[in-house]
Amino acid sequence: MKKTKYDSYFKAAAKKYNVSESLLKAIAKAESNFNPKDVSSSGAMGVMQLMPETAKGLGVKDPFDPEQNIMGGAKCISQKLKEFNGDVRLALAAYNAGSGAVRRNGGVPSYCKTYVSRVLSYKSAFETAAAVG
């Protein structure tokens, strides 16, 4: 996959929160296709599709600001990775459906499986592109 206009934000967020840059880009690709003005039917906003209360809790003052939104999304997935002991699939499901849904289900809820697979596929594509340069 080609570079995005927000690569510097993804790089800074990955470094700050110790998460894979390709994972952050993959989440953004799946969530909004990198659209900073995107609003979902459930009210999630921006590049990383943060819910209003989640954004506020992550310290994001303007969820439509790509830099703030990407930093917030990175902080969120970092927290989910810690919560689920580094299990990327569970962390992605929790990012998408909430930690409670993952715990109640004892794993990735069936309605999240396509999302998790799509993000992991994008992640692989970003890693390949980075390796090729």
What's the gyration radius in Å? 14 Å
The CATH first-level class comes to Mainly Alpha
Q: What is the fold named in CATH at topology level?
A: Lysozyme
Question: What is the domain tally?
Answer: 1
Per DSSP, the total helix count is: 7
- The backbone outline, from C-alpha atoms, is globular
Tell me what you see in this structure.
With 133 residues, the protein is mostly helical. The chain has one domain: Lysozyme. It is 63% helix and 0% strand. It contains 7 helices and no strands. It has helices at residues 7-17, 21-32, 52-57, 66-83, 88-97, 99-105, 113-132. The chain starts with 6 loop residues before the first helix and ends with a helix.
Describe how the helices and strands are arranged.
Blueprint: H1 7-17, H2 21-32, H3 52-57, H4 66-83, H5 88-97, H6 99-105, H7 113-132
In short:
The chain is mainly α and 133 residues long.
Question: What are the key terms here?
Answer:
single chain; mainly alpha; globular; Lysozyme; 133 residues
